Automatic annotation (TrEMBL), chains A, B:
InterPro entries: Amidase_Cbmase, Bact_exopeptidase_dim_dom, Peptidase_M20, Peptidase_M20_dimer. Belongs to the peptidase M20 family. Binds 2 Zn(2+) ions per subunit. One of its GO terms (molecular function) is hydrolase activity, acting on carbon-nitrogen (but not peptide) bonds, in linear amidines. Residues 209-311 form the Peptidase M20 dimerisation domain. Keywords: Hydrolase, Manganese, Metal-binding, Zinc. Its cofactor is Mn(2+); Zn(2+). This is Zn-dependent hydrolase.
Amino acid sequence: MADNVSRVDGTRVLADLHALRAIGTYKSGVHKPTFSEPHLRSLEWLVQRLPEAGLAGDIDGIGNVLGASTKPGPKLLAGSHLESQNHAGWLDGPLGVVYALEAARVINPDPKIDGAVEVAAWCDEEGHFGHFLGSRSYVGAVAEADIDSARDRNDGRTMREALASAGLADRPRVQAERGRHIGYLEAHIEQGETLESSGLKIGIVTSIVGIWQYRITFTGEQNHAGTTRMAIRRDAGLALARFCVAIDDRFPASCGPRTVWTTGRITLEPGAPSIIPGAAEMLFQIRDDDPAVIARLEDLLRAMAAEVDKQGRCSVAVERIRTGAPARMDASFQQAIEAASAAFAGGKSLRMPSGAGHDAQILATIMPAGMLFVPSIGGISHHWTENTADADIVTGAEVFVDACRRLLVR
Amino acid sequence: MADNVSRVDGTRVLADLHALRAIGTYKSGVHKPTFSEPHLRSLEWLVQRLPEAGLAGDIDGIGNVLGASTKPGPKLLAGSHLESQNHAGWLDGPLGVVYALEAARVINPDPKIDGAVEVAAWCDEEGHFGHFLGSRSYVGAVAEADIDSARDRNDGRTMREALASAGLADRPRVQAERGRHIGYLEAHIEQGETLESSGLKIGIVTSIVGIWQYRITFTGEQNHAGTTRMAIRRDAGLALARFCVAIDDRFPASCGPRTVWTTGRITLEPGAPSIIPGAAEMLFQIRDDDPAVIARLEDLLRAMAAEVDKQGRCSVAVERIRTGAPARMDASFQQAIEAASAAFAGGKSLRMPSGAGHDAQILATIMPAGMLFVPSIGGISHHWTENTADADIVTGAEVFVDACRRLLVR
């Protein structure tokens, strides 16, 4: 470790994170929906920091910030995102951006290191307008028509309107220059409690799970809640509730060790207290890093729906509306993170899949990619109470910067 | 029956119902929310019909139409409502108004009958702005402050705005003149399938059930749907689904023969596909004509909630938000309907409670009240397919008019 001093400035990292937290503060977290004023100010903040790291860049035509280096040698791309979920935490996104910035500040001016870290903030990772529109734009997977049709799920504003009012409508979208980068590294809070409950400091991500999403629709018969006897009802809401419970009872026998499933939204039609619901819909999601497990669970889901149909009281339709293949993280990136953890985190690391989606899964489609996690207190995220201990934030920064160095000099 | 000819004009009754169906037509039903243009036109239509029945009246300051007679002798009040649920049927409401109008047309000009039928259309029986605001205003149970705070559940428009734009803001509200009426009679479609499935033509309502309504709120922990292991989740939506199923499993052992219960609306917070719901709410309703049965079921509901609380994963709060005592129908009104059914419906009648609420329950708080039902095809109501056979509509009119005559001449 003698020649391997990180020179990470932990105070500077924390100060940067607090500077971003001060933009769009909500309780102890932030509220920065994509293209909101606090989000745009956060992007400007990053643009103004880039020169300190020997980088130049601006906000592009889809709201990405990309800081490019003119230093010769290999380039490593690193970053995350700066918008937040609604009324959410201060670290989900900014942590990865500030780590990347710190790595660039440490590595880029260092003449002993051949190569540079380039910093990215990907727009809309949190999906206010779509799925990973910023990173997907960068890898060339977003057409103009996708932008035409994108709308803010909060208020229905079109993405075109949002880009225009942010003054970004006429800017080009920066796209990946093939061969420019040796790969992409992203840090993130774990958003789970595995690291914390095991006393570990660094998660080495092996893969990002796939997300399969379903719209499950129940059709019964709408009728008057006062005059229709219980015996003859065809209550779509009750059929849905029974289905939710059946999933919870039956999935455990068929799932993998880390499978998760969630019913995030339920809608009854017409939704009035005096009317028996004639239709009901649930949004249901399964996540696993093994497509075979997902396939088995989808078969079970469809078999369960067929059983309900057969009982004849309500009919059920299962529609898959999102299919996300798992993304494998590059083996050499995992090794670099593990070696850096040994050097700066006492080896308190664990290889683990990511249950959440991240921009790294998009970058992984065009270059080697890796991710590291730091612990989340109580496993909480997507909530304003989300937090990580200051010491863990600094340790994470040291491991991250060292992993970047190892990837550039290997 | 020789001196008991109804002189009901069945063709005229059907023509009137079709005239009202032609205002605000939706498929084979109507869409006439309270104070919508089609609702106001329907009220105007009724005002223009009143003189044919020897009545005079107008739309009052809450949207009621009241047709008064100057004929000496006893007065019987009769009516129903002209607005509809959204995208609903053509008979729910108009049937009772047109029967009342027909009774007035037959009885009021008849010098042999001492007394008159007065016709009412009560505003907002369907509860777009509140609960029975029209009939409650008439009996003196609506304060100006109640109107100030009433809003359209469809679009949030205040009742004051709706009254102003209908030109009703400055009109007085007509209130009941104590002692003027011998009672109130209302006809309605059954909205259930008891009459149809038994081959009967007339339901003689014994009581209108009470409606107890609850807001049941589940509190768990909002978290990320990808990173939070199943074992440690506190999913409020799943707790709600299990509670719905438990109600359905356990209520039958404690309920009465005609008790009904319904979960009409479910809301998960925040309602996003990738977030485990931290809170969930259901609107739940119990109806019975026996308060003791309701009390027993409410005890069970609270005991079940305490069991969920005790398991410790999610907490449950049960809040009663509406308490409606059952309304008994007057015995002499039931006898009059039964005698009229014997004369005009071959005695094919049944005494039965009403599972739905009606304006008659409000009028019953200040005068004797009665209701009769005609069959509903397939038991369907609050849906545009709602219907009753023409022959049953005409038979119902004959029984209704004869019951009015019997009540006036007794």
